[in-house]
């Protein structure tokens, strides 16, 4: 039996004993038996081949009143945080392995109206333009051939955060406020670590890599990362000197003692300018690397490498990083920039393999939307959305486990080496 884009009724029945055992691991997250009974209904509906997987079609297919399932998500008393914690424990117990990679990314879903929590006109990656949508930030986990999503949280725009009556009408607690997406990503990471998950590496796109405070926070947590940064990312080839000597601006006023660059220090440069003008990169020979096997054959990129110093949010030299410039071997106009806080002697090939493993979370999003119904939640209550995100992870983890059991293990060059 092949598990594809949703299972038909016969396949769901065939796997029911396995699914029942899997869901029993979440029993203690539900205090009431009648509330707990809705969990297999919702998860089975997400795993099915129903064309639509919101509460109403799932309930109708299961022969239960749609309002009952809607209330299960938004109103019934059960511990969604305990469900998330148990999910993390299952991943640790069943799938922990060497060379694990955590992947941070966001996804968006087009929504109508203005009542859905967090919805507003904003950039929507799903359609590639500004659109009325909600955005959620996610954390994925991968090791070997296995990958899944382990957490997700709503991005609350400032327009919502500043309008507390609107938030209360949508069930958004007063302590849930606007946070930059990188702060949400850090919260997801800290939650996973607290529940026993560990990541040999973390990777993310330039939307997160462009934030020095995020990179510094991961460094402070002892987390290795290899991540994409924008071409405007600022750094120095050679760290400038810093002084804390007091000085008076314009020769007047109280002396300032804040650390600052010494007079005459060079300004930081954008990484695209370093590639063009710094001899250390400009005169370096491009080296080819096989980063992974794609659907259309091997993906080969050419790279240059240097060590640089980050410019932090105060304009001062920060951590020492690897800088990798990579260009598509078949299209030299496609250039990416990556940085990593890995030890100085880490191989460039290793850093590239980690940085190019972000496709795994993109595959998770694709599967969750096509097979689980991640983007088909319909509701106006924050708790319902929060629970839908968690249960979608529960459903997808089961799907990933079934796939792992049914399919032969693949071998390929995209396996990530140890740090």
Helix/strand/pairing category: alpha+beta
Helical percentage: 25-40%
Which quaternary structure do these chains form? single chain
How would you sum up the major sheet? 7 strands, antiparallel
Number of helices: 17
First-residue to last-residue Cα separation:
37 Å
Task: Give the integer mean of the pLDDT values.
Answer: 89
Rg computed from alpha carbons, rounded to a whole number of angstroms: 24 Å
How does the SSE layout of this entry go?
Elements: H1 9-14, H2 16-24, H3 33-36, H4 38-47, H5 55-62, H6 66-74, H7 80-95, E1 101-110, E2 120-124, E3 129-143, E4 146-154, H8 158-161, H9 164-169, H10 181-194, E5 201-204, H11 206-209, H12 212-220, E6 226-229, E7 234-236, E8 242-243, E9 260-261, E10 269-270, H13 271-277, H14 279-282, E11 287-294, E12 297-311, E13 317-328, E14 331-340, H15 348-355, H16 359-372, H17 382-406
Parallel strand pairs: 1-5
Antiparallel strand pairs: 1-3, 2-3, 3-4, 6-14, 7-10, 7-12, 8-9, 11-12, 12-13, 13-14
Helix pairs in contact: 4-5, 4-17, 5-6, 6-17, 7-17, 16-17
Verbal overview:
With about 425 residues, this protein is an alpha+beta fold. The chain has two domains: about 10-210 and about 360-405, no CATH class; about 225-240 and about 260-340, no CATH class. The chain is built from 17 helices and 14 strands. The strands form three sheets. Strands 6, 7, 10, 11, 12, 13 and 14 form a seven-stranded antiparallel β-sheet that branches. Strands 1, 2, 3, 4 and 5 form a five-stranded mixed β-sheet that branches. Mean pLDDT is about 90; it is low at about 1-5 and about 410-415.
